[in-house]
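Q: I'm building a small set of examples for a reading group on sequence design. Run inverse folding on the following structure and report the sequence directly after it, with nothing in between.
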């Protein structure tokens, strides 16, 4: 035992635990996790920062400025970004009302078209889509515009990300990030919008406090988060910006080399020495004398057509050879363009506007990821349009529209959908028509669905057709249904009849050749 810290008596032996078998440790080796002299420099910028820390305001500002510079000076980036916007937005989305009151639907759809033309919605949507490629994000704000020539005075204003910011003291607020105020659940509460663009030369004396706070319900933040927790957008062309720069440098270098070879037709060479103090050089001195041979270094001569000349003694005439990599330029350029297109889900034919190296099948397969990206982006814009339409219907119901006087205070249920321009035109329309016919016969598709894929409203087309043929709409609808029913019946094989049927006559076919009546 222990007494005052001293041990008295025999010290007990410590029990020894039985030996346990050693567990075999499996160590997996990943080449990507190894650091050596070959890859040390390549991975030197890899970090473990969060999405917001990696894309902090300073980094995003640098990328935006460089992307805008390339957009303004690089033909490929400018053309690709506008092609993506044109294919996504087209001529603009069209509203189709789905209430039971057809008259109400026609009036609202007409008012929507007029309002879109008044604010230039299609142009703003294209600017927003280009902004995603160049700036990474765009902010759309719903507001009142009393100057609109339309009963609905609502407008949508588009802002660049530079104009969304706030006071410096908010940098230490955990619920505030780069102009956006969040609640405890991470939902945006408000946006701080500068009254003028920070880069506007007309507002050089703008203070950091010159901003307006707008509720989040009136702001649509249009960006694509690539990582969880990412709260601000990065340009979609970020990964391709160095390639755009290399492509322009390569093009300028090749063009400069070709111009140099074209400008310098011939070069005169000599092994004679040149005396700078000899004033007789260039004045036709005696041949054989180094300084008076009649030619001065870096001097130029005009060549006359169809003339043969005799050079001084010791001189030779050589033609400049265009020795530069212009023959492999197309291969290098195409390789860079393919990498650029992969960043934005664009095939080579879209970025280069060149389909000479692809057949029909290759071009069709190469466009599938691009088509899918357009469909996904349109679905994102549908949510934005629903956000606009919700407030637009609110203003419309309280506006003074004579055509809607009878519906005031008793609006039908607002059910709607959106139509876009037809995006894909197949190179073989016969195959498309045959496939659509099979889909209709098997019930996989319907006539309204096929019209919707082309961005058209089946009901509107039926009304226009009835007006053209000057028949009632319902009568034309019944005729089309009867025709479709008849074609379906005729496309089905007839059932064989029993040859022993006593009612079968000699003049009738035993495979259903009798007359049939169809009542619709």
């Amino acid at each position: 035992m222990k007494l005052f810290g001293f041990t008295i008596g025999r010290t007990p032996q410590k029990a020894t635990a039985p030996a346990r078998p050693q567990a075999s440790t499996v160590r997996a080796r990943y080449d990507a996790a190894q650091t050596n002299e070959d890859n040390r420099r390549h991975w030197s910028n890899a970090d473990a920062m969060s999405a917001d820390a990696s894309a902090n305001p300073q980094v995003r500002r640098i990328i935006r400025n460089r992307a805008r510079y390339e957009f303004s000076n690089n033909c490929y980036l400018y053309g690709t970004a506008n092609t993506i916007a044109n294919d996504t937005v087209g001529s603009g989305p069209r509203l189709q009302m789905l209430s039971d009151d057809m008259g109400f639907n026609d009036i609202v759809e007409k008012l929507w078209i007029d309002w879109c033309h008044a604010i230039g919605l299609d142009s703003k949507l294209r600017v927003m889509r280009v902004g995603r490629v160049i700036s990474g994000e765009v902010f759309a704000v719903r507001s009142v515009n009393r100057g609109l020539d339309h009963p609905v005075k609502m407008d949508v204003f588009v802002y660049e990300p530079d104009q969304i910011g706030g006071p410096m003291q908010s940098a230490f607020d955990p619920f505030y990030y780069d102009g956006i105020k969040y609640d405890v659940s991470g939902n945006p509460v408000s946006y701080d919008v500068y009254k003028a663009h920070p880069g506007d030369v007309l507002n050089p004396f703008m203070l950091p406090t010159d901003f307006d706070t707008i509720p989040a319900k009136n702001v649509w933040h249009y960006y694509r988060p690539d990582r969880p927790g990412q709260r601000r957008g990065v340009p979609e062309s970020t990964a391709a910006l160095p390639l755009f720069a290399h492509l322009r440098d390569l093009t300028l270098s090749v063009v400069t080399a070709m111009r140099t070879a074209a400008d310098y037709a011939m070069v005169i060479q000599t092994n004679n020495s040149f005396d700078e103090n000899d004033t007789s050089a260039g004045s036709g001195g005696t041949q054989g004398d180094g300084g008076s041979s009649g030619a001065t270094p870096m001097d130029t001569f005009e060549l006359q057509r169809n003339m043969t000349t005799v050079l001084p003694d010791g001189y030779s005439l050589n033609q400049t050879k265009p020795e530069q990599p212009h023959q492999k330029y197309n291969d290098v350029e195409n390789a860079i363009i393919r990498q650029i297109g992969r960043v934005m889900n664009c095939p080579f034919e879209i970025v280069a506007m060149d389909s000479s190296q692809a057949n029909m099948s290759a071009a069709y397969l190469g466009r599938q990821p691009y088509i899918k990206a357009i469909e996904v982006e349109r679905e994102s814009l549908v949510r934005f349009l629903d956000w606009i339409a919700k407030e637009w219907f609110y203003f419309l119901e309280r506006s003074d529209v004579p055509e809607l006087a009878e519906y005031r205070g008793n609006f039908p249920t607002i059910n709607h959908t959106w139509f876009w321009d037809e995006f894909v035109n197949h190179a073989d329309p016969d195959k498309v028509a045959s496939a659509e016919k099979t889909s209709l016969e098997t019930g996989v598709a319907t006539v309204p669905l096929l019209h919707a894929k082309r961005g058209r409203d089946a009901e509107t087309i039926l009304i226009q057709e009835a007006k053209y043929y000057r028949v009632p709409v319902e009568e034309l609808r019944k005729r089309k249904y009867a025709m479709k029913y008849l074609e379906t019946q005729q496309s089905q094989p007839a059932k064989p009849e029993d040859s022993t049927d006593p009612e079968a006559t000699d003049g009738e076919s035993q495979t259903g050749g009798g007359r049939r009546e169809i009542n619709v």
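The chain has 14 helices and 13 strands.
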